[in-house]
Amino acid sequence: MKNEQDLESKVYDVIIIGAGISGIGCAAYLRRKQPKKTWCILEGRDDLGGTWDLFRYPGIRSDSDLYTFSYDFKPWNSDKAIAGAREIKDYIAETADEYGIRQQIRFGRKVFACQWRSATGLWTVTATRTDTGEEETWQGRWIFSATGYYDYDQGYRPDFPEEETFSGPIIHPQHWPEDLDYEGKRIAVIGSGATAVTLVPALAATAAHVVQVQRTPSYVMPLPERDGLLTLARLLPSRNLTHRLMRTKNIVQRHLFWVLCQRYPKLMRKLIRRMNAANLPKDFAIDEHFNPPYDPWQQRLCAVPDGDLYKSLSSGKASIVTGHIKRFVENGIEMQSGEIVPADIIVTATGLNIKMAGGIAYAVDERKIVWSEHAIYRGMLLDGIPNFALCIGYTTNSWTLKVSLLCEYFCQLLGEMDRLGKAVCVPERPSGGMELKPLLDFGAGYVQRSIDSLPRQGNGYPWMMTFSYGGDVKMMKRSSVVRPEMKLADAPQGSATPN
């Protein structure tokens, strides 16, 4: 208890909010790059892992390869390039233990308010203890928001006509019941994204039959669960070199594929169709069920490790119905076409909601922060908000590739401010103004539903939200840590000195 009291009484250099892959990554970078800085992590859940602790639905896995989804400083040593939630969470936990992070995490602290006070040059963070309901306050010079942008409390769940007539359970994957028995049951999975594509083969292993009900198809591509280059890479003299080779190869390969999709969308559409056809029966209606109305990478592609979805469809354990839902009926779903999809259980894999900065109420000197009024700077700072870093990963690449760059820059910024003797950093927009546009240029439904509530971005560096890892690496190296747009100030007179 004494340890917790000591932690609460400190003024930290950095308060990290969230103990998922981004928060643990930031803490590890601080340990490695800024070992003298004091910090803590406030986590609302009772364990670390974030997304990989929250979601418990069958088959949950990454949709990025783990050589790029893992941290650059900690090799991914599993043979699996695409891994499940348990393996990913174990990897995050190993990182926390290796860098002595776990003891700096205060679990069960649900942060609901963060207030910056210019008079003290500090953030006051207020959290509720989930075990006692008591409120606690924490003070820090910086906030590093590592909550991602998903709503961890509630997934996206549209209302369907006459739901009440269905006699079985209706389940959203974000709230999967641990005791759900689906063996031998008929299951309808509504959705076409990564969650649906993951669930269908996982459920089909024991269910009587699984039907994927989709309004429009998504791009689906087979990926080997074990990378073919790994056997050769294992011959290298160290795990770090193996990891580096696999990571570099996958970064280049994924970027090349994305560039080809942008420049030659018709050609890449044909290539993806050919892959699908090669993995499905000759009489399968590919153009009905695997032919999206948009170009590749306008939305995220769905990875199918070792073709598990194709195998379920080919075996007859699973099937796909494409079209609009008319209503729910007692024993399933009626489509606009009149077709009845029989089901004992309906799973609504209809997506996620966005909740900016964890839904926490932020304010600067009592003025409430409205995120859409602020512009992103260098992918992580926001104009007009002092000493605040926001961690958002890539949408068209592995999330963690961007996180690593942001954490690296964050540590450089802290070091440079120390060198200059400055304590406060606030980006300011150009005096002549600049054109603003949505933060994320991405067609996914969860983005489009919330785009107006997110911060904005400009039309040129350093005010752009970039999505090219290679381009970002070059910009980080060639650009000075502190630029003219960043207004630095001394610590307020009489403010707390570092612990």
TrEMBL record:
<keyword id="KW-0560">Oxidoreductase</keyword>
<keyword id="KW-0285">Flavoprotein</keyword>
<dbReference type="GO" id="GO:0004499">
    <property type="term" value="F:N,N-dimethylaniline monooxygenase activity"/>
</dbReference>
<keyword id="KW-0812">Transmembrane</keyword>
<keyword id="KW-1133">Transmembrane helix</keyword>
<dbReference type="InterPro" id="IPR051820">
    <property type="entry name" value="FAD-binding_MO"/>
</dbReference>
<dbReference type="GO" id="GO:0050661">
    <property type="term" value="F:NADP binding"/>
</dbReference>
<feature type="transmembrane region" description="Helical">
    <location>
        <begin position="12"/>
        <end position="30"/>
    </location>
</feature>
<keyword id="KW-0521">NADP</keyword>
<keyword id="KW-0274">FAD</keyword>
<dbReference type="GO" id="GO:0050660">
    <property type="term" value="F:flavin adenine dinucleotide binding"/>
</dbReference>
<keyword id="KW-0472">Membrane</keyword>
<comment type="similarity">
    <text>Belongs to the FAD-binding monooxygenase family.</text>
</comment>
<dbReference type="InterPro" id="IPR036188">
    <property type="entry name" value="FAD/NAD-bd_sf"/>
</dbReference>
<protein>
    <submittedName>
        <fullName>NAD(P)/FAD-dependent oxidoreductase</fullName>
    </submittedName>
</protein>
<dbReference type="Pfam" id="PF13450">
    <property type="entry name" value="NAD_binding_8"/>
</dbReference>
<keyword id="KW-0503">Monooxygenase</keyword>
<dbReference type="Pfam" id="PF00743">
    <property type="entry name" value="FMO-like"/>
</dbReference>
<dbReference type="InterPro" id="IPR020946">
    <property type="entry name" value="Flavin_mOase-like"/>
</dbReference>
